[in-house]
Amino acid sequence: GKKSLQQKVVDELKHYYHGFHLLWTDTKVAARMVWRLLHGQVLTRRERRRLLRTCADLFRLVPFLVFVIVPFMEFLLPVFLKIFPEMLPSTFETESKREEKQKKKLNAKLELAKFLRETIAEMAKRNKADTG
């Protein structure tokens, strides 16, 4: 059924607690990676991507903290998230938002594949007409 207002607030607080906890964990791992870089070790591609994502999340956290610190500004957070959907750090994304992003990427890849297939077919027709 429907959740009460108190349950919605508790769920949101848990969501943000888990988001900050994940961000803290990512930050500790990223600090170790930077330490390794400073000592001459090479990062793998996966580690490099994680380091870049964590740094981007930390830079996104600055405007997000304004909404948390300023009283009653958290009510404007949904409006700003509609305007700037990438403002929230990646650790705060919900599963539905993550799935929506993946669907958009997949649709874009499918459209690109369709375009390339049509282009190749058209080029094959031209080559066949030129040689025939």
Shape: flat
Mean pLDDT level? 88
Low-pLDDT sequence parts: none
Count the E strands: 0
Helix and strand layout, with pairings?
Layout: H1 5-38, H2 45-69, H3 77-83, H4 95-131
Helix pairs in contact: 1-2
Give a structural overview:
By secondary structure, the protein is an all-alpha fold. It folds into 3 domains: 1-41; 44-85, no CATH class; 95-131. It has 4 helices and no strands. It has helices at residues 5-38, 45-69, 77-83, 95-131. Helix 1 crosses helix 2. It starts with a helix and ends with a helix. 7% of the residues are buried. The mean pLDDT is 88.
Any key phrases for this structure?
single chain, about 130 residues, mainly alpha, flat, ribosome binding
Q: Care to give the gist of this entry?
A:
It is a single-pass membrane protein. The chain is built from 4 helices and no strands.
